[in-house]
TrEMBL record:
It comes from Virgibacillus chiguensis. This is pyridoxal kinase. GO terms for biological process: thiamine biosynthetic process. Pfam families: Phos_pyr_kin. Keywords: ATP-binding, Kinase, Magnesium, Metal-binding, Nucleotide-binding, Transferase.
Amino acid sequence: MTIKKVLTIAGSDSSGGAGLQADLKTFQEYGTFGCTAITNIVTMDPKNNWNHRVYPVDETTVREQLETIFSGSPLHAMKTGMLGSTSMIKLVSEMIDQYEMKNVVIDPVMVCKGEDEPLHPENGVAIRDYLLPKATIITPNLFEAAQLSGMSTIRTVADMKEAAKKLINIGPEYVVIKGGKSLDGNKAIDLLYDGSAFTFYEVEKINTNYNHGAGCTFAAAITAGLAKGFSVKESVAKAKTFTTEGIKAGFAFNTFIGPVWHGAYNRAGLSE
């Protein structure tokens, strides 16, 4: 048996629920081997309303991490998460080209959980220009999709379709926009677009606040699925189920957040 190798280039979430910790847990549950390049260390301040603090890792260190990873046997897929700066984004773009990476999942992380402003607005522009054209699939939420597509807001399925059309024209092969529980109605809806047809993935909304890391988990599951040879549509469908099960089994970490549980899918006997 060949164990598939996957890479995440992302921030470290000290609470363990999101970022590269969520990615690694997901990779493990999928039976793949995860490698990490840490771009930022993220903490929460319990003395100040759990405000996030982001400590960037210097670019030289990130480059050396990537050179270590790419010096081994070929990777079968990779994803990005929180990237610290435009120069970091350009570095990732350079590495994708240099090592001719396939199965590239770009999760355009722009805010931390509980925040509502982009960490660095210029990073969104750099992600759009340097990473989206190299992506097999991008996985923005509604806020990120609006930022990248130039739309003011995305509130409906019709808005999601319009944003997906704008995003596919930038260059990714596929776009999946995560509507989640932000849309009206009782369905959590994600939309996949390949440039010609829309595919919808719907489940009943889950009434919980324990969904920290859901977006990272979803993108990581798609990455692992692609590494294992699933099609994009199959990877997204399985990632939707994997993440939904994780949200159902979420739990309180502190008084501010509760993470999804990455072991829920396999423990529920849903794995192949």
